[in-house]
Every structure is written in C-alpha cells, then in structure tokens.
Model the fold of this input.
Amino acid sequence: MNSSAFSIFRNSLNAMYSMVLLMLANTSVVAQTNEDPGKLENQISKAANSNQKVELMIRLSSYYLNKQGELKEDLEKAEKINYKAENLSKTLDYKTGFGKSLLLEAQILREGGDPKKAQKKANEALKYSKSNNLEIISADIYRELCTYGGMEKADIERKIKYLEAAVSLYKKNKAFKKQADAMKDLADYYGLIQENQKALAILENAVAIYKSIGFRELQGVYTLMSGNYGVLQNPQLSLKYALLAEKIAEEVNDTSYQLCTIYNHIGLAYYDLLKFDIAFNYFEKSLNIALKNKNVNDINTLSYNLASLYCHKKNYDAALRTLKRIQKNYPPLDEITRIRQLFLFTVCYSMTKRTEQAKPYYEQLVKKYKESQEGLFYKLTGIIIYLQRSGQAEKTYAYLKKFKEYAKKSDKLVFYSQVELLAFQSDHASKKYESAISHLKQHQVYKDSIFNLEKLKQSTALELQFETEKKDKNIKLLKQQAKLQAVKIENEKVVRYVFIGSVVALVLFLALLYNRARLKSNANKNLEIKRKQIDEQNEQLKKLLAEKEWLLKEIHHRVKNNLQIVISLLNTQSAYLENEDALKAIQNSQHRMHAMSLIHQKLYQSDNLSMIDMAWYTNELIDYIKDCYSSEKSIKFNLDVDKIFLDVAQAVPMGLIINEAINNTVKYAFPKDEKGEVSVSFKNIEKDFYQLIISDNGIGLPENFNIDETESLGMNLMRGLADQLDGTFSLENKNGLKIMVTFRKKTEIEASN
Done:
C-alpha cells in the first residue's frame, strides 16, 4: 500500500484543480484611480451648474469609493458627493449623469454591506438606462449585476448572459477597453463551468483588442489562460502563460494582490510538470502574499497545496506542520475547506501509523459524511484510508460501495480509478488476493484511459493555440500587403507621369512585360505543381513519423504497466511464502523489474523515444532503493554522475548493473546496521568511452573470494551484463569494495548490427 498511497493526493489535486483556481483566480483587483481629489474639488467649486460639474462629482465620488483601505469616512464621502450629483442631474435633466449616479449608488450600497438593496438599485438603474438608450451605462450595469448571487451553475449562467449583453453593447459603441475587460470576465465564468476551450478563444480575442489599443497590463488575462490550460491538462502552455503573466507584472510594476494568483498558477503548472521544488517555492511566495493580506480563503487553499506537495514526497510530518501552522490562526471559512483540512490530517496521521492521533479527524469526517454530500470525494477517501491503516479493512466495503455510486453519478474517470485503487488496497489487506488483482487491473485500465484522454485534451489545446497564432499571422500579412499595395499605387503614379511623353515606348515596354509575365507564369505553374507534389510527400512522411512515435510511446507505456503488474503480482505471491530465500529472490526480482520499468516510464513521458538521461535515471533508481531500505540502514550516498544519454540497448543493462551493485552493497557491506558511505560515479572518460564506479567503505569481500569460481547470481549477472555491453568488469577489494565497468557508447543501429 505504501508504494501507491500518494496517488490519492495526486488524483485529488488534479480532480479539484478547477476548484483551487476558483478560489484564487476570482480575486477582484480594483484599479486605484490616479485622480487628484484636491484638484477635482477645486474644479467642482469653480464650475457652474452644468453637465461637466456632474461628471466631475461622479469622478470624485468614484475616487473615494475605490480608494485603498476600508475607511467608513471614505464611503460616507462617496455617498454624499454622489447624492449631490444625482440631484443636480435631475435638475439639469442630464440623463447620462443620472444613470451613472444610480449605478454608483448601487456600488456604494454594496461596499457598505447591503447587497440586497444594492442589487435592487442596480436593476432600477438598468431599467432607467434602457428606457433612455444609455447603452454604455447599461453595459456597465450588467457587469455590476455579476457581483451579486452565488457561484452555483445557474448563477454563473445568469452572469454569462449579463456579460454577453455587455460585450455586445461595448462593441457596438466602440468602447474597446471596456469590451476587452468584459470579455475577460466572461471567459472567467466560462472557465468555472468547465467550458475551457470557449474561455480560451474569448481570452485570445480580448488580448487582440487590448494590444490594438496599446494596453499593456495583460497579466490578469494571461493568468486566466494559464488556469484554463491547466484544467485542460496542458501544463506546458499553462506554465508559459503563467510565467508571461509574472513577466508583465514585473514590467508594469504591479505589486497588487494579483501576484498571489499568478504565483499559485505557476506553482500548479510546475507541479503538473513534476518539478516539485520549483512548485514549492512559488506556492510559498503566493502564501506569503496571502498571509500579508490576511486572505483566509487563499491562505487555506495554498496551505493545502503545500501540504499535498509534502505528501507527494512522503514527508507527512512536514505536511502536518504546514496544516497546523494555519489551523489555529486562520480557521477555514467555508465547509469544503474544512473537509479538505480534515481529510489531510486523517491521511497524514494514518500513513505514519499514528491512528490514535488520526482518530478524532476521522470521526469528524464520519460525522460530516452523515450530515451532507458536500466534499464526498475527500470524506470517503479519508475514511477508507483510516480504516485500512487501522486494521479495519472489512469496514471499508460499505464506504467503497458509496464511493462507486458517487463515481457513477459524477462520471469522472479519475473517481473510477480511485475507487478501484482503494478496493485493491482493502482486498489486499483482507487477503482477498484474487479480487485484489482484479481491482488492480481495472485501476490500470482507468489509468490508461485517463492518460489517453489527457493526451487528447493537450492536442485540442495545442490546436487552439495553433489556430490563434495562424490568425495573428494572417492579420500581420494583410497589413503588410496593404502597405505594399499603397507603395505600389504611389509608384504607378510616378511611372504613369514618366511614360506620358512616349506612347510608342510605353506600348513596346508593355509588350515586353506581357511576354515576360507569360513566361514567368508558365514557370511558376510548373514550380507550383512540383511544390505541391513535394508537400504531399512531406505530409505523408510526417504522418508516418507521428504514427511511429505514438506507437513507440504506447509500447513503452504498456511495457512499463506490465512490469508494474508483475511487480504487484510478485508482491501478492510473497504473502503465501514463508521461505526467507524465496522471499529475497522475489524481492530481488522486483528491484530488477523496477529498474527496467523506470526506463520505459521515462521513454513514454518524454519526447525523445530512444535515449535515456542516465543522471536522472541513476538518481531515481537510487532513491527507490533507499526508500526500500530506509527503515533498516543508515547509509549515505554520494553521487557524481555526468549528463550522459544512452539508448535503450545499453541503458537497460547499465540500470540492472547499478541496481544489482547498490542492492548488494546495502545488504552485505554494512552488517549489524553499521553506518557507511556509498559513492556512485558515472563519467565520460574519453570520446565515446564511459566508466561506472560504485564503491563503499564496508567490510568488502572475503580474502579467499574468487570471482571466476563464485556462484553468486548477482556477480555473474553483472559480469554477463558487462559482456553484453562489450565492456570490462573488475573488482577492487581494498578498504571496502569497488566495482568498475568500462564500455564504449553504441547506438541502436550499431547494437543491432
């Protein structure tokens, strides 16, 4: 169970991805106006009772309404000034001013904490603006109406209708900045109901409008684009736009709370790209901003992200410290956040076998499970894991049945996959091995389906980006053609004036041009036919190459999955064995299969289908071996590995040699749990020649040891693998044991020959 337990956290974070974004991306950042209140007051005092005076008063009232801080006296000033503007508008019969004052009154009521009265006033303002054909003000009121109501699907769909009406009115009246702002809000709401492709298309159009009017502060738009690409499981594009948002924020010196959202999106993108250390740093930066602004919702969300990251690294104590840091000072304000917090406490304590400390949180989860269906994914997962870890696996089956019903109702593959994984763990703990294997296989089927679905989503997102870039290029091309056409017209005028004096010369010249044009046209037609033939051949070759690459990835993926299933089967088989030698043999076989599985996993996850990064691979393999013996041995590993890329034919035997050598060293070099050091060096000693050295300061080999007469399977396996590499294998038994393998790098073609 230990080896797969964290998939719960990984799946839960992906499953709730859009919810995490909802809590951060919708933070409204009100732009502080650059008005000078003293100057405005002076202009108002000097102005006669006119439309201009009304506009000045509305500007001054808006200044105090949007002024940074939550001072009551600023709100009272805004209300008093707007009241005067409203009355003066009535006196002057200035309909535009009166419509703006009604809208401002609604905003003041909302900021004052009376949303019901504010919404009523906003509807009154909309009715007045429509009856007097005040289209831009009507659009402004539609945007104001979006601030009322909840975030249920029906509420969001109503807000979408308001914003679509606002966009249409802004476009009609050429209010481009407001049109783009409304489109940005519209895309945000489409993202919340998971219409992410539509949201991205709207955001691309908004960016085009912003750029056409020279507006530079696009960090908010790019943050939303990052979020939508993240939901579409395209972390590369998600990271691209999140980093672009950060870059623009720095360029325009944006130090607003919006940075909290930007950093969180960067962290999520790096998380999905498995770059956890970088993700951790950005989550921390985002959390510091949330703490500085005392935004309780975001503090809880970001702490959840950090705790989940710690859990991924199996550092449950650090996850608990993160949760406890905010539990007392920033208790959750909403129910779903409370449930997520209880879920993490339950799982962290359960996974570290502290079931007594987990029990209070488990009992709260059970209580909340009986009260409502909210956060059912977290409740059921936490309850089942606690029961499994506390030796009550039989009690999990009732909850697993509920989980299956929930998965069927939600119709999400990730939930089906989670149910099968938890069922496998319960069956394994209950020694129902045949059923456990069935659930494990079904879990793998769902996992494969999720993988393929994510690839499809990535493909769709990339297609959208390609179409957008193509459209931008076409616009640029049309502009260039227009410029060229203008130059051409001007040149034709000059030519016409030059040739007026000689009609005969003009006729001859035109005849020559006509003849040249015909020759050139015929040549171009021939070239075009050849170009089309070449293009068709290239397209066929591209398709064949793409199909080959996809097939290779699928093969590596399947090989890796099959190896994992064999490992799980061996693990299950070991439960029936009591012979220590047999158990060790199975364990050794599992290590060797994992060494090969790592290679196939790396190949199907990367774009390079033939070469393995041995620096990455060596680190991953040694980390796995360390995890296997972490509770038994106190050994320090020193790694000095060059950036070396080997093809599969050489990477597999090298991986098995490293696996065999490290396992033998850990098991035999340091008896009685002695501390020691193991050094691993993999270097390019000269052109195309590489040397692997694995040494320790342990007890070494017996004095009478003869490698040619040994019956050790590990030693014979390493020698045989070295021969397979056409390399040399040697031992040095001095102050410990040193194993050296030297070989020449070959390509797959050379190896096959």
Remarks:
- The chain has 29 helices and seven strands.
- The beta strands are 611-613, 635-641, 645-647, 676-686, 689-696, 728-733, 737-744.
- The CA atoms of residues 460 and 466 lie 10 Å apart.
